Every structure is written in C-alpha cells, then in structure tokens.
Amino acid sequence: MSTDPTRLSRLPIVQAPMAGAGGPALAAAVTGAGGLGFLAAGYRSADALAADIAELRALIGAAPFGVNVFMPHHTATPAEQERLRRYARSLARAATRYGGTVGTPAPGAERDDWDAKLALLLAHPVPVVGFTFGLPDAAAIAALKAAGTLTVATVTSPAEARLAADLGVDALCVQGAEAGGHQGTFDNPDDPAPYGLLTLLALIAPETDLPLIAAGGIMTGRQIEAVRIAGASAAQLGTAFLRCPESVASAAHKAALADPAFEHSVLTRAFSGRWARGLRNGFVARHEAEVPGVYPYVHHLVSPIRKAAAERGEPDGLALWAGQGWRLARAEPAADVITRLVDEMAAARKAHA
Amino acid sequence: MSTDPTRLSRLPIVQAPMAGAGGPALAAAVTGAGGLGFLAAGYRSADALAADIAELRALIGAAPFGVNVFMPHHTATPAEQERLRRYARSLARAATRYGGTVGTPAPGAERDDWDAKLALLLAHPVPVVGFTFGLPDAAAIAALKAAGTLTVATVTSPAEARLAADLGVDALCVQGAEAGGHQGTFDNPDDPAPYGLLTLLALIAPETDLPLIAAGGIMTGRQIEAVRIAGASAAQLGTAFLRCPESVASAAHKAALADPAFEHSVLTRAFSGRWARGLRNGFVARHEAEVPGVYPYVHHLVSPIRKAAAERGEPDGLALWAGQGWRLARAEPAADVITRLVDEMAAARKAHA
Prior knowledge:
Chain A is α/β, with parallel strands linked by helices and 353 residues long. Chain A has helices at 24-32, 46-60, 78-98, 114-123, 138-146, 158-167, 197-204, 221-229, 251-257, 282-287, 297-312, 334-352; strands at 13-15, 37-40, 65-70, 128-132, 150-155, 171-175, 181-182, 212-215, 234-237, 265-268, 276-279. Chain A has 12 helices and 11 strands. The longest helix of chain A has 21 residues, at 78-98.
C-alpha cells in the first residue's frame, strides 16, 4: 500500500487547512471534487476538532481528508510576558476602535490542546495528519503510523526538510514565502529570510525521495504543472479557495480580497506573534513595529478585536490572510475552482508538450 | 522578423548581467554555449561599456548578446545628503577594519552616465538592451527600435509590467524576490513586498502577450522547465554562473558561496541604498539598520571598502550577492553549467510527459 498522501486523492490538489477560514464544508467540497480536503485543528480544542471531523465524515463518508495540527510552543518567559503586557496596553486603543476587547490567553494556551488532539487522532484515526510550526516526537509519529495515518510535515527550508525526513514523516509540505497565513517555520526569528517556492523545491527535491506538496501563492493550473515539473507530487492551495461560498472567512475578509484598494501583502507578526502573510491594512501598519514575537499569546490578545472588526465589516481591523496571488481568487464554489484548475493544467501540459 | 529577444539564442537561457561579476568573458561563454550573454553597464562609464562591447564582439563575432543599463535616479535632496553624511561617518569604522576608505560619489553619479551610454548604444547598436530600476522615455525606446535593438524591461510587480508593456518594450524580465543582487523595482520603498517568481509569473502572464524572461533563484533545468510551463519564454540565471572561471566575482565572494558558514541570504540596502540580495554577513548585520535608501550614492560610499575587503580576502566586508539557490552554484565553466541545464531540462520534460 502506498504511503504517499498525494495518492489518496484523484487529483494532485491539496486544500490548505486555513485555521479560521477552512472547515468541514470546504474540506468536503474539495475532497468531493477529487482533491484532498484538510481540516485546520490550530486554535481549536480537541472537542471542536472531533466535531469538525464528525461533520466532515457525515459529508464525505470514507473519502480521504487530512487534519493539520499546530505544534505546541514554550510557555512565555517573564520577559516575554512583560512584552505581551505592553502590547496588550497598546491594543486597548485598537479594541476601542472596533468595539471589542483585548483578549486574555487561557492558561496553557501555548499547548493549543496538542495532547488531547493527538489522543483523539490516535483513538479515532484520520487518513492524513499534517504538522505546522515544528515536529512532534518520534513516539507520536510511530503511534500515528501504527494507527494507519499518513503524516505530512510543513517545512520552509532545506534544514527543516532534513529534520522532518529524519523523523520519518510520509511527505513534506514545502511552503514558500508566497503563502498566505502562517509560515510554518520551526523557529520564530525576528528577521526571517523565507525562500521563494520554486527555489525551495529546487533545494529540497534532490535531497529526499519523500513526496513533496508545494505550497505558496499557487492559484492556477499552470502553476500546479510548474511545481510538478519542479519535483512536487501535488500542489496545496489555500487563497484560491478563500472566496468560495464554502469558506468560513468573514464577509469583510472575502470582500477585501476583491478590493483594489489593497495593494500589498506582507509578512507580519502583528496578529499572532508569528510571521503570517496578509493584506497590509491599518492594523498591520499600526502594530507591526511593536508586536512581540510571542506566539500564540498574541493571537489570543488580538482575536476578540478581529472578531469585533469582522462583525462591523471593518477590514482595517482584520487579519486579511492572503497569499501573494490573491488577486486571482474568485468567488465561486470550490468544485468550480477545481474544474478550472484541471482545465488549466491540461492546457499547460498541451502547450508545453 | 521576430521581435522576441528570447529567440535570438538557440537555448531559452539568458545570463543575468551581474554588475561587478559578469563581463565579456562570461557573456561570451554563455552566448557561445547557445544562451544569451549579457553585459552589465551599471556603475560603468560609457567608455568602459564601449570597451566591454568591443571585447565581447571580438570573442563572439556576430552572435547575439545584450547590454543591461541601470536607469538614472534623482539628485539627493539636502535631507538625503545629511543622511548620507551620517552613514559615511559610520562607514569610516568599517573602512578602517579592512584598510580601505569611504568613497566619495562623483558629481552626477545618480545619472550613472545614462545619456552617454544611450548615445553609444544608438551610435553602435547591440542586439538587446535591458533596463533595470525603471523605464526610459518613449523617445529612447523608439530610437533603440529604429536602431534595430530589442528592448527588455526588468519588472517586479504586475503594475510595473503594465507600465513597461504600455511603453512598448519587446520583452519583460520578470524578477522574483529570490533573485541575487539588485531587485529592479522602479521605486525604492522602505518596506518592500517583493513577489515570489512563480506567483509573479501567474499574475503577469495572463495580462500580456510579450515574451517573459523569468528571473530569480533559478539554478536547475527543472526550474527552467517549470517557469516555461508557467508562461515564461526563457529563464535568466545569474548565481548559477557566479562561481564559473569566467565570472569576475572576487575569489572571496566565490569562496563564500561554497562556505557552509553562510546560512541565509537577505535583501539589504546596506551596499547601495537599494534592495539587493546577498549572503548575510557582518557588514549587513552592522549596517542594515542605519543605511539610508539613497541610491546610488551609498554604492559609491561603500565601494572602496568592498574593494579593500576583497583584496584582503575578507568575506565579512563584501557584498556577497547571491540568489536564494546559491548552494547549487558550482565552480565549473559556464559551458558546462549550460550543458548540465540542458540535460536537466530534457530529463524534466521526459519525467513530466
């Protein structure tokens, strides 16, 4: 039996999990259209994840899907806590602006309910589990394998790819700097130097036989064929699905993706304390210079403010996650996105032959 | 007759001009092997360029080649001059470290001898002229066309691509963030948001029928086939040729490219006042926070220090230009690089068919 997660689906198209924008409806639509749907477990409790999985299974039966988990982080040091308190004071003004409040990280927030989620995924195995922000220990990988689950590690550099391959995961999700949302980088440097996707594939592909899932800015069938010829087995797309009716991104977020007033996407830590790509808006401009790189506490401080801004339809206060190709995202059902991608892939192969 | 500069050579391989590392020997080797060699006119006088062209023609006869010109900039404002003086005082310490001196920009340095170079290229036409850091006026384009020269504009965003296409250039060099050396961005923002190559191609290709030359991090034949399937007519490679014997990069620069101690490439303005990608070394670490974005004066301040560091074999004081794929650069003749690329291209097409 193949241990290649990109062989589980008919098409070489993987849906990016997108915490806060994906969900069972989108994953079901992508899997239903022949791709590999993914649920985002990040920022969700094990109980909420269990409910998502049940909902997805009710929609797709025995068809394949994946669950992406955020790896736990260290507890904030006293110095980091002081920097968080300063950021919280500054955020109070932003909260007032949108009628929200500054959040309070729950005790243990840095674990993101990892232990309970792993227990859930071992007790009720799913076809694929992906990891973001690092790697679990070898025992977790062995347990998932024994449960019949294929594992995928998100990597953003050749060094991370080597660590993941040495651990024995079944595939690598090779994420370029173009990607929307969080960079899956293992550490959290103040001065990141992320690789562009095509170069990252060129550096990693010769070093491993593992299947590679290429991620970052992919919006077209031409790009999917490009990453395949560059060594990937499949392409992962997130922003391409953000405006779909099945996406649970807020209406204000979806509208911003189609608004020509937004001109740049940038990597910022302003929303979570980790680098993530979104449209540059007022929140980013006001806060990116002062935000401490202390994940995930910053997310929990900011989260209620984002929610209040979304309810008011104020894109200026939202995390407008977007990959660099966001202008090509369309408001159409996920199945239509995939039909178009498949047509574009065929045309690209024909033109190149 | 075709106006597609990528049809002038047998292979879809263009050599990046690389001011300070390219030159007649490298351009001749690339053109001789079936690619399109390029001379860098940036930072050189019109007389020096004329000598380079004569030397190249003596080596390749009537075979095709290009000349890349840096576009002129505005004269530094009084406020910019004050910032330059401050930077010069800080650089004095760096100069001492390497036994060099801080340079003095010559009057008119911001023009980079543009008018004389344009006059030269009109009086003694060359097959291709490329532009970096913006666009000339319509009269210059018309005059070059009348002289039988094909023109290429370097662009780093869809907006720049539209401006270049509207001006009537014959091709676009689409440069991604992965590229080594200078980003050709028209303006010089304090907070750049450069696109990854594959996404940039996806955004620009549907908007124009102009031939696209893809640049940025390309080191392998697989990548060349990838950018072709993504819409490019040819690929431009610079770092892939940096360690060649025909490259005039300093010995210390060539050695640094093979030194595992260098772990990251970064975009920095420390060496010229414009964003350019090189290996992160001591000079970058010490100066990037203070450098004013006042091109090209910063280049002329720093240039003698770099020269002194090169003579001492001190990579810590050099501009170690490198694209993100630098670890794949090999110390072999340019013709061997091209033979390998062609083999890899054939293998990639075969594997993908």
